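User: structure tokens for this one?
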Amino acid sequence: MNHEEKQQLRERINLEIESATEQVIELKELTQPIAPDAAIGRISRMDAINNKSVNELLLSKTKAKLQKLESSLAFIDRDDYGLCRVCKKPIPLGRLMMLPESDKCVDCA
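Assistant:
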């Protein structure tokens, strides 16, 4: 992987980190506890609890993605960056541009 490709990936990772950070902030607000004295109907309350559960799962996945992105950014200048951690073959640039947190090629993933 040449310097220009790594620079493109660095920019892509930074954009993804920014987006994921904003999403974490929004999801933290959506996963606040639902007050038992909130003036909503029983069905609406059940729906709100269900939505909270979905948002908690999404928050967890987004935090994990953010951690992987930050790790990718930290290791981007290493010689083995862009190599599959399982088979050690190069991960295609297109895959890294779509999923910059990828550490495995398509076959090993």
